[in-house]
Amino acid sequence: MMRTLATPQLMLARGEGCYVWDVDGKEYLDFLAGIAVNSLGHAHPVLVDAVSRQIATLAHVSNYFATPPQLELAERLTRLTGAGAAGRVYFCNSGAEANEAAFKLARLNRGASGRRKRILALNNAFHGRTMGSLALTGKPPMREPFEPVPSGVEHIESTIAALEAAIDDRVAALFIEPIKGEAGVIDLPEGFLRRARELTEQHGVLLIIDEIQTGIGRTGKWFAYEHAGIVPDAVTIAKGMAGGVPIGALVTFGWASELFSRGQHGSTFGGNPLATAAGNAVLGEIENAGLVENAARRGEELRAIIHGFDSPLISVVRGSGLLVGIGLTEGDAHRLSDAALHHGLIVNAPNESSIRLAPPLIVGDAELAGFRDRFGRALADVAPHR
Ligand SMILES: *Cc1c(COP(=O)(O)O)cnc(C)c1O
Q1: Distance from C-alpha of 211 to C-alpha of 236, rounded to nearest angstrom
Q2: Pair 119, 154: CB distance under 8 Å
Q3: Tell me, what's the pLDDT at 383?
Q4: Is the Cβ–Cβ distance between 133 and 162 less than 8 Å?
Q5: What is the pTM (predicted TM-score) of this model?
Q6: What tens digit of pLDDT does each residue of 211-245 get?
Q7: 10 Å Cβ neighbour count for 6?
Q8: In a mutational test of the pocket of ligand 1, which residue from 100, 124, 212, 216 has the highest number of ligand atoms less than 8 Å from its CB?
Q9: Mean pLDDT score across all residues of the chain
Q10: Are β-strands 314-320 and 323-328 bridged in parallel, bridged antiparallel, or unpaired?
């Protein structure tokens, strides 16, 4: 394995529901879900059945041909995002690729005289690791070793004042990560998305929301922008959309759907029948089982549990629905996630002062009780109660 990441601590062999088992047979309660990917948990029968049937029928055909699962998923996404009949969908295989497509879309919004050359994104937001998505990512230490990256991107603070100062008629697009997951589950200020929508509309700027981590029901709505009551011009989706089968999508709304023309973008695997059948199974099950509502309700219960710990380590709880950030009083996040693992619980430390939780959308009473028990023990190990 290339040394691009830290060495994994565990080797996992199988999963079922909200649990996984390592190669030695030890059980773990999975409150990360592959970083908000396993929406239905592990080995969900609806997903297993759909993928098994599709691979036995037609797995891949190239984009010279359409397939029924592909069109069905495109229709679902235009409906669920609110893009409706004027919406269009581009399929790819990952979040970074969805943002690459969105970056190219932004370049096509040149304005009449071709003067829209500026692209805005937020400091500390994460948009991916490929060169274009890295240019959008507002974390200089990630970007700098690989410069020069594509030009024209300016990073601004996540404040309404910074939006008002930056947006003008030379801006092609504004990229927003509505809750900054990789930064530790950091919320935007109240009113930020609504003001971003007003200003981008006034100035003909594409408002592109990166819902790769927050989308597909994770925050207790299908998409996080719904909490703000706004509709974007484009949205990028990936992680939770096919329950672990690699997929990504760019969905455009209204006039943004007219920007790409024939031959301007493509992907060999993008939108193949296998991946899109998995997407249909996941989205269908989320609707049938009421999992968006479950994410909202279980998210509240999870927050109540965390507030109930009364640990000197916990300073604040952030995020929405089942995307939860626990801000710590001291930089003990890695010790805490290691202690949780020891007690059979998978959580994530995106940085030294935050714990991120993103359990499967199917979590219920038993899993929340398991979390209370196991995380409580991890907290007590790292900082004994007052
Ligand atoms: C994970 C993530 C990405 C990148 O997705 P990949 O599938 O890893 O390329 C982009 N944006 C956000 C907000 C993400 O959470």
Answers
A1: 6
A2: yes
A3: 87
A4: no
A5: 0.98
A6: 999 999 999 999 999 999 999 999 999 999 999 99
A7: 6
A8: 212
A9: 97
A10: antiparallel
What was the pLDDT predicted at 73? 98
Determine the average pLDDT of the residues in 136-148: 97
How far apart (Å, rounded) are the C-alpha atoms in residues 152 and 146?
A: 16
Among 213, 219, 247, residue to substitute to test ligand 1 (most atoms within 8 Å of Cβ): 213
Domains in the chain, CATH or no CATH each: 12-30+290-385 (3.90.1150.10), 48-288 (3.40.640.10)
Average confidence (pLDDT) over 195-220: 98
Percent of the chain with pLDDT over 70: 99
CA distances from 20 to 43, 133, 293, 367 (A): 10, 31, 25, 13
Residue 33 to residues 155, 260, 334, Cα–Cα distance (Å): 30, 34, 18
Neighbours of 111 (CB within 10 A): 15
Q: Which residues line ligand 1 (CB under 6 A)?
A: 94-96, 99, 126-128, 177, 181-182, 210, 212-213, 238-239
Residue 385, pLDDT score: 57
